[in-house]
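Worked example

This section walks through a single chain of length 377. The input is the sequence exactly as stored; nothing has been trimmed or padded.
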Amino acid sequence: MTKRRVMFWVVVAALVGGLVYGFNPLAPSGAGKGPAGKGPADHGGPPQTVAAEPAKTQMWQPSMELVGELRASEGADLALQVSGIVQSISFESGDPVHADMPLLQLIADDQVAKLDSLKATAALNALTLKRDTEQLKIKAVSQATVDTDQANLKNAEALVAQQQALVNQYSLKAPFSGRLGIRGVDLGQYVSAGTTVVTLQALDPIFADFYVPQQYFGRIEVGQPVTVKIDTYPGETFPGTVSAINPKIETGSRNVRVRATLKNPNGRLVPGMFAKIALDLGKAERFVTLPQTAIVANPYGATVFVLEKSTDGKTLVARETFVKTGQARGDLIAVVSGLKEGETVVVAGQIKLRNGTPAVIDNSHIPKTEADPKVSD
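Given that input, the structure is written out below as tokens.
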């Protein structure tokens, strides 16, 4: 009976030991490598059909994908400084206008009449000064009289200028060239001072404002090229250049505000649009690139399956290897380390593979991969 118990516990201990040392849920499938990791262990079995491509190298320009907002190079909500009733409107909603173009006039008859009165007074003072100046030559008047005439004329001219400025406030002109928005007042309407009459935006050029993380502050400079994409126009890009960099870092986000200038001759871009901005950083670099489908994401890191010839040289077997990935671009991704140019990498069918699994390549059904894929209509 004792022997049977001893044998029972020996069998239990063997099973527990096998479970503990034979299974590791966090180990990659590379745990099946040969001694000292010198090569893949041959698992045998039927070959698995996979798609594979050789790793290639490409010159990539390092860049950042950022988000921002379009702003007008000049923009204002136009309003009047005084209250009054609208006498005339000289524009329509959405009209293009040039600087100093009259847009709206309030009724200002009383102010204009007062201006005419002040102008008449100034003209009389000018005549008086001219007459007394001639009289001074023959000593018919004193110098004090002429001095008083000069002061009266200057005062009258100042009153005319003051009244003229007040009359000007009853009219609205475009402060710069641009495109008007939707009119906010109507003919005959009483308008209070400060009421927005219409919005005016200068659209060419147009600005794109965005934020760059602090660590890249030293790698941006005025004149640097940018590429802007707008969801409104899928598949199109709008080139621009960095035109201004804020001289301080935002304390809350540790980002720096950057402004790019874009040409917009057709007015297709308008203020407030959400923009995706690609900013080039530094010089172009050469990277080993793969289709993104080749990367196997795991909790312990990214891996790829490389196909190598078996020991007999007749078949291909899979070897799983760790890689460090970099920037993704379109369908491709850069591999910073762990892979060499020319190595054959599995891009589809990895789920069927483990280290040492025989494989057969069939690329008849894999789609084309591009760094800058175009959206087809």
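What to look for: The mean pLDDT is 84.
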